[in-house]
What we know:
Layout: E1 7-9, E2 13-18, E3 24-34, E4 41-46, E5 57-62, H1 72-93, H2 103-121, H3 150-176, H4 180-193, H5 199-213
Antiparallel strand pairs: 1-3, 2-3, 3-4, 4-5
Helix pairs in contact: 3-4
Amino acid sequence: MPQEEEVYQEPWQGFERTFSNGTRETRYMAEVIYGKRRRKQYWLLTTNPQTLPDNSTSFLLVAAPAIKLKEIGDHYGFRTWIEYGLKQSKDALGWADFRVTDYKQIERWWEIVMSTFTMVSLFADAFNRECPLSHQVFAQHPWWDSQQEWKNLLNNLRLIVEPWVSFNRLKRWLEVFEIPVLIQGFFQLIEQMQQFYCPVIHELLLRRLLFNSA
């Protein structure tokens, strides 16, 4: 900022913070101006403008001039739930388990994670019409989870791919100790898992194969 300009704060304004369950609570916001108002705006949001409690006071940058003044507080309120959801997804998928610095490793890891995230998300309620989740045979597995939350679907998809993963873990040993009956049994079990079919995922995988071969 030029030396002749000053930082000043506009008066506090009350607004109604609307939560996901429909309840409302009065919050307060005030614009902080550095010299003169520019495209990027700075705001203080708090539950108490007198004490500014640390756990409920935020300082944020708004770079969307089209946003309405009364919408700033509510829009920013989504941030907590977005971060919470991403944290749960990261922990469930294993994002937090590895830390890599090589670009190619990062790229491959993100591709694996995002593919998994997409696959699980396609089994959410919005896609249930196209993805038949009510396979009674699969639901007989003692670890099958009949609930429809994201982590429940992840649990079930892990069960579906378990035979294929287990076979690949044992594959090298089966090359040392040939047990045709065991190998054939794995093939039959994996073939049964193929019956858990979803047209949406099948199409995405097909596109992915075509993209890789291009």
